[in-house]
Design a protein that fits this description.
Layout lengths: L2 H22 L4 H25 L3 H17 L3 H4 L6 H22 L3 H30 L4
Helix pairs in contact: 1-2, 5-6
Length: 145
């Protein structure tokens, strides 16, 4: 069996499952019902591929963690190299999102355009929510963002 394929499938299922769980608490009623149906299915997919390839999540934790750190650092790179506006970070982050989305779509057999648009939408929503939380923290606690 191809271990790399197994890891890719397991990580893809884990990504989808994590996304559905994260969206579930923020989704309006009808979408919550759909996510309630998808979460158990995605959980079974994740468990199936993990069992099929004999992969334990503990072995994947470090890779996933490092991936998240890299994802958080990439938009900061233009600032570290002297960028004074938001645009270089947005362009770099958008480019990486498109690159990773294309790779995930290719590996999972999903439509590339759909995956890119879905990931850009989810990330834009996460950024907007983070910004709103920052504004709320500023108003409530006087924290400067």
């Amino acid at each position: 069996m191809d271990a790399r394929l197994g890891k890719r499938l397991v990580l893809d299922e884990l990504f989808d499952l994590s996304l559905y769980k994260a969206l579930r608490s923020r989704a309006p009623g009808p979408l919550q019902a759909i996510l309630d149906q998808l979460i158990p299915i995605e959980t079974r997919h994740y468990q199936f591929w993990r069992s099929f390839f004999g992969l334990e999540i503990e072995r994947l934790d470090l890779r996933v963690g490092v991936s998240y750190v890299i994802g958080a650092v990439v938009p900061l790179l233009p600032v570290l190299f002297g960028a004074r506006t938001l645009w270089p970070s947005l362009i770099v982050a958008g480019g990486v999102i498109v690159l990773v989305s294309t790779l995930l779509a290719f590996l999972s057999g999903m439509d590339v355009k759909r995956r890119i648009l879905m990931n850009l939408g989810v990330i834009a929503a996460a950024v907007a929510l983070s910004y709103a939380i920052g504004l709320l923290a500023q108003r409530v606690w006087g924290v400067s963002v």
